Amino acid sequence: MYNRKLALFIASTVFVTLVATGCAPAPTLVPPTQPPAATKPLATVVPTAVPPAGPARGGTLTIAIAADPDGLDPHKTVAAATFQITRNIYDTLVQTDEKSNLLPDLATKWESTSDGLKWTFTLREGVKFHNGRAMTSDDVKFSFERLIAKETASPRAADYANIKSITAPDAKTVVFELNKPQANFLSNLVYGWAAIVPKESVATLRDKPVGTGPFKIVEWVKNSNVTLEKNSDYFIQGAPYLDKVVFKVAKDPTARLAALRAGEVDVIPEMPVQDLANIRKDPNFKTIEVPFNGIQLIPINNKAAPFDNVKVRQALNYAVDKKAVIDTAQFGIGVPIGTHLAPVSDYYVDLTTKYPYDPSKAKQLLADAGFPNGFSTTMILPQPYDYHIRNGQVVVDMLAKAGIKVTLQTMEWGTYLTQVYNGRQYTLTALGHTGRLDPDAFMNRYISTAPENYMNYNNPKYDQLAAQAAVEPDVKKRHDLYAQMETLLADDAAAIYLLAPTSTVVTQKSVMGWTVFPIDIYDMRTVWKSAGK
Fold this sequence. Notes:
Elements: H1 5-13, E1 60-65, H2 80-86, E2 94-96, E3 102-104, E4 107-112, E5 118-123, H3 137-148, E6 163-170, E7 173-178, H4 185-188, E8 215-221, E9 225-230, E10 244-249, H5 253-261, E11 267-268, H6 273-281, E12 285-291, E13 294-299, H7 310-318, H8 322-329, E14 335-336, H9 359-368, E15 375-383, H10 386-401, E16 404-412, H11 413-422, E17 428-429, E18 431-434, H12 439-443, H13 460-469, H14 475-491, E19 495-500, E20 502-508, E21 511-512, E22 528-529
Parallel strand pairs: 1-10, 15-16, 15-17
Antiparallel strand pairs: 2-3, 4-5, 5-7, 6-7, 8-9, 9-10, 11-20, 12-20, 13-18, 13-19, 14-19, 21-22
Helix pairs in contact: 7-9, 8-10, 13-14
C-alpha cells in the first residue's frame, strides 16, 4: 500500500544534484486528509495552508502504548517505543509522509554534488529549541558528530559512519562530506536517531529531552506515562492542534482495550489482532488498517551450537507452518514471508516456497546434522509484546513435532534489550523489525561486522553484495543485488521469517487526522479531536 518508489529515487539520483526552492516562510500544517502536492519536485514539497474550516484546536489526546521508552535521548536508544514518542519532541533535517516521500523539515532545501560526496543543506529560519534558544547549523553539526562519536555508543552510529566531515559555514548552512557515495544517505536523515539536539542539554536528554518539536516534555513517570504539552513556538504555523498528549503505558492488552472502551484512552496504535474482529463491529470506534512496513520472525543465534550448523537452521524452517502461525498466533491477519523484507517494499522477493512445511524433511536434516533424536534448547520471549510471545509459543509446538524440545522463558523488555538484542546471549527468540525507507538500512544488520547483527550471521558473499548495493546508482542493478542478498538469507536459513503484519490503529470516533507512517513513529502534529476535548 505504501509507495515504495522512494528507494528508486534515491538510488537513481545519488550522483545528480538535488536542489529545492529557496527558503520560504514557516509552513502551515496540512491535515492528512488534504491531497498531497504530488506534482511538485520531491525535495520542494512543503505543507500548504489549512482551509478556513480547519480542525478543532485544544484538548488532550491519550494514547495507550505497550512499553515504556528505554530513554528519551534519541542518539542513545534503539527501541521503537522511544521513537514513537520522540518524533513529537525532536525534529530532523528531513521528514517522510505516509507514502515514503521525502519532505523538508528543519532543512528547507538540499543539494548534492554530481559525485554524491558532498551534501549541502539550508536550514529553516526561526526554529527554537524548547529552552528558547535559536537552533543553528552548529547544533546540526554537533548532533551528528555526537551521534557518530565512539564515546556516545549510539546503537545507530554505523548508519552514519560514512560521514567524513561536517561543516557549518554559516548559521543557515550545513555541509556533509561522505567517504563514498551512499544511496540511502538522504533517507537516513529522516529517522528519530538523527534528531537535532542542543549541546547544553545532552547530559539530561535521557529523562528531560529538549528538542525543537511540536511538543515538549511535562513529565515522564517510569512505567506509567509520558506527558507532553504543546510547543507554542513551533515553527509550523498552527501546529500542533492538541494542547497535550499523554502516552500511557499499558502493558496488558486487555487493560488497554478496557481503557479504550471506558473512554480513558483515545487511541490504541497497535490493536491486538485477537480483538480486531469485535472492534470492527463496534460503531463507537474507528479502525485504520494498512500493510505494515515490517516483519515478524524467529531470530536464530547463528553462532551458538547447534545453530551454527546450516542444516539445523534449515530443519527449523521446514518444521514451521507459517500459514498456521498466522492463523493461530495472529488470528489470520498477516502474510507469510521468506526473507528479511516486507512485501510493501519494491525490493521484496517472494521466497515463501523455499521451505514448505515438511516435518519429515526437518527430521531428516537434523539426522544429517548429527541429531537423529533431536535436541533441547531455550527460546527467550520479550515481555510485554504478546504478539511475539504468541508467535514463539506456536512455533515451539511445531518444533516439538520435529524432535526439538524448546523451553520458553519470558524476559522484561529492558533486560531483553541488554541480554538478547545487544548482548547476543540467546539461542532462539521471537521478535519483529520495523521497515526502513531504503532496503540498505533494513538489510545491513546481517553484515558480519554490523553492531545490530544480533543473529551473528556471517557470510562473506553477503558482506560483498551489501557493500555494492549501498553505493550502486543503477536501479536495476541495485534490485538484483538485494535479490541476491535476500536469497542468501533464505538459503542460509539465517532466521525463521514468519510474516508481515498489518498495522491496525483503533481510535475513539472523535479522533481525527491520525496517519500511519512507513517508519515507526506517531506524529501528533496533524491529529485533533472533533470535540476539542
